[in-house]
Amino acid sequence: MEYREYITAETQIGELLMQYPVVVPVLVSMGMECVGCPSSQRESLADACFVHGLEVGPLVRALNYRIGAAKEKGEA
Length: 76
Prior knowledge:
Blueprint: H1 13-19, H2 24-29, H3 45-52, H4 56-72
């Protein structure tokens, strides 16, 4: 699978979840259980990573890989 960037560190969580709900398990596995929290919906991935003490780069890569895999399978 070729790596593509579907989202960036500036992507808002609400937008991400609406467009690519297949990423929820990735977010939860990295400690972002607050994906359903109303206040997180307008937060960028970079902001959420800062709050949770995570590096945004690895998260963005993991999310883009998951989105790409889902697109290949017709799930996204």
